[in-house]
Each structure stands twice: as structure tokens, then as C-alpha cells.
TrEMBL record:
Pfam families: Abhydrolase_6. Residues 43-333 form the AB hydrolase-1 domain. It comes from the Eukaryota. This is AB hydrolase-1 domain-containing protein. InterPro entries: AB_hydrolase_1 (IPR000073), AB_hydrolase_fold (IPR029058).
Length: 353
């Protein structure tokens, strides 16, 4: 059981934007006696496709403990913003999703949602003026292009640095490389084939524990998935005897498959990533056992001759694409090292001014 203090915030921009945005602020466990500093970092987490805002909890709790012990970087607060068609947000937005996005989901909708939350101001949402914070964006998989594409919205959200874990980007189609769509095709086919409905929570737990990729997850992450990534099946509302009171994934197969068709994962996302690596420090974290990002793709995202200039590249031995779910404590240790480096670089830069 997590000891983090959790507060959920909502930003509702309807009718201008049909999708409401949910985010959770995570404060340190009281027993940690963590002293927050007003000049500390505000960390903004964006999750991978198929996950939910709570998937970061184990990593966040460990990160607070590491920050308290190291004193090499300081955290003011942490927010995890949910993609509007995932988790709790999918239930909140179900009517709008059905009306406007039934078979369509561009990654930039996650960018738009995150921007709306961070731009809500002091009177709505978290009631924070994020323009006065030192923001560090931390994204996993499709959460990375969502962070990068945020640069297209006004007013600009100014991140001081970005940590990109297994970035969900692919080669540009304009390079006429057949590899560009292979990963997306595989992920789309896998989405249609995987099971998404269970008779009960006990059945879901038993079957997911024995299925990939969940079988390789940390048990605490699986518990969070069962609690937040699944929902009561919509057929529960049917009149008896036709109602079905089982569970299904909050993210529908239709929208998950649509997300892999989005060009935001190719030309647009990669272009935004390339530009951002030249504007601010972007620290990339790869898994050596990644099922999604082969070495050739990793090289593409590190190719300085193409204008892609990450500040650092870290490779995690033995980790897979879903390292946040498989090894959340270790991910926290990697984040701690990178945040310490960001703080050191910032301090060195400030001392030269």
C-alpha cells in the first residue's frame, strides 16, 4: 500500500474542448519528513499507451526517498497527468470519446490535455501557476511524443529538461524506409488479438498474471493496473438478463489501435523531438531488451547529423520496453541519477552567469 499523499485535480474546458483532464499530485509520505523547497523541481509524468496515471506511483514513492537521502536534487511537487481515454479519465469522458473519437486517437490529444492542465492557472485545476515552476517532463513510450508535441500549443509550456524513457517514436516516413511502420503494425495487430474482457476481478488477476506482458510486471504495478486500468463493462447497463457485470479495459481496443495509426508517432512527433533536443536537455533512457525500439531505431533518435541531440543516453541492461512496469524501483534510481545531473548542470550554468 502506497504511503504517498494523493490529490486528484480536474480541468474542464468544455465546450471549447470536449475532453476533461485528470491529474494526480503526489506528495511525499508524512513519515519521510521530506522538506520541500520552493525552488525545487516540479516533475510532470506522462504514461505509456494502455497505462494510467497511477502506474508511476511505485517509482514516485521510491524517488521521493532517494531525493530525501541524496540531497543532490530537490522536488517541490509531482504531477501525473492522465491521457483522456485511459484509466479513470476514460470513464469520465466516455460520451465525448464515443462522439468525437470512436475510431480516431492522435497522440497530440494527450499533448493537448497535458497543456490544458499545465495552463489552467491559479483559479482552476491544481491552482498552480506552472509558468513560475522549474518543470521537468518525464515521459514513457507514447508519453514522450506527447511531451514533445506540447511545444505546438500556446502559451508555450517551458520545460527545463525532459527525461524520455523508451520514447515511442519511429523513423520518418519521408525516408522511404519500410521499417518506419513495422512496430506500429505489430502493436496494432497485437491490440486486436489480446484479451480485454473478464468475468470478474479475480479472473482478471489470475489471467493477467499468467499473460504477457503483465506476467513480467512488478506485483505492485499489476495491482495498480487492476484497480485503475480496468472498468466495469459498459454492458452492465443493459437490462437483465442481458447485462454483463464483468470488467474490460478502460482504453478500448478501437482507440488503442487508432493511436498506433497516428502520424504523431512518426513525422510530427519525431520532428518535435528533434527540435526540442536542440532547445533543452533531453535525457534518453533505453532498454537493452526492448521489444519495441531496436538498436537501429535508437541510433536514429541519437543521430546528431539529423539534428537529434540528446543531452545523454542511458541504456538499462536486461530491461524491456515496459521497464516502468517491470522494474519501477530501478527506474526511480535512474531518474534520481539523471535529476542529480540536471541539477548539477543547472548549478554549473548559474555559477557562470
Amino acid at each position: 500500500m502506497s504511503e504517498l499523499i494523493k490529490t486528484i485535480f480536474k480541468v474542464d474546458n468544455r465546450p471549447a474542448d470536449p475532453l476533461q483532464v485528470l491529474a494526480t499530485r503526489y506528495d511525499p509520505p508524512p513519515a519521510l519528513n521530506y522538506v520541500r523547497r520552493d525552488n525545487g523541481y516540479t516533475l510532470v509524468f506522462l504514461h505509456a499507451t494502455g497505462m494510467h496515471k497511477e502506474t508511476w506511483e511505485v517509482t514516485i514513492e521510491r524517488l521521493y526517498k532517494l531525493a530525501a537521502s541524496s540531497q543532490k536534487f530537490f522536488i517541490q511537487d509531482i504531477f501525473s497527468i492522465e491521457c483522456p481515454n485511459h484509466g479513470e479519465s476514460a470513464v469520465l469522458n466516455q460520451e465525448a470519446l464515443k462522439k468525437y473519437f470512436e475510431n480516431n486517437w492522435p497522440t497530440r490529444e494527450y499533448s493537448r490535455a497535458a497543456h490544458a492542465f499545465l495552463n489552467a492557472g491559479r483559479s482552476r485545476g491544481a491552482m498552480v501557476d506552472f509558468s513560475k515552476r522549474t518543470l521537468i517532463g518525464i515521459g514513457h513510450s507514447s508519453g514522450v511524443p506527447a511531451l514533445c508535441l506540447m511545444r505546438e500549443y500556446s502559451p508555450r509550456i517551458q520545460f527545463s529538461a525532459i527525461i524520455a524513457i523508451e520514447p515511442g517514436l519511429s523513423e520518418m516516413k519521408t525516408r522511404n524506409n519500410p521499417r518506419a511502420d513495422v512496430v506500429r503494425q505489430v502493436m496494432s495487430a497485437w491490440t486486436w488479438l489480446k484479451k480485454d474482457t473478464w468475468a470478474s476481478s479475480d479472473t482478471a488477476r489470475k489471467e493477467l498474471k499468467a499473460s504477457q506482458p503483465q506476467a513480467s510486471w512488478d506485483p505492485r504495478i499489476l495491482n495498480l493496473y487492476l484497480k485503475y486500468a480496468l472498468r466495469i463493462h459498459p454492458a452492465a447497463s443493459f437490462p437483465p438478463p442481458f447485462n454483463f457485470n464483468g470488467l474490460t479495459t478502460a482504453l478500448t481496443k478501437e482507440q488503442e489501435a487508432a493511436s498506433y495509426r497516428s502520424d504523431d508517432l512518426l513525422d510530427l512527433g519525431l520532428e518535435a523531438y528533434s527540435i526540442i533536443t536542440r532547445e533543452i536537455p533531453v535525457h534518453v533512457v533505453w532498454a537493452t531488451m526492448s521489444e519495441v525500439a531496436p538498436p537501429v531505431l535508437q541510433e536514429v533518435l541519437e543521430d546528431r547529423s539529423l539534428g537529434r541531440c540528446p543531452a545523454s543516453v542511458t541504456r538499462i541492461e536486461g530491461a524491456g520496453h515496459l521497464m516502468v512496469q517491470q522494474a519501477p524501483d530501478y527506474v526511480a534510481e535512474v531518474l534520481s541519477i539523471l535529476l542529480s545531473r540536471i541539477a548539477s548542470d543547472h548549478s554549473a550554468f548559474s555559477s557562470r552567469l
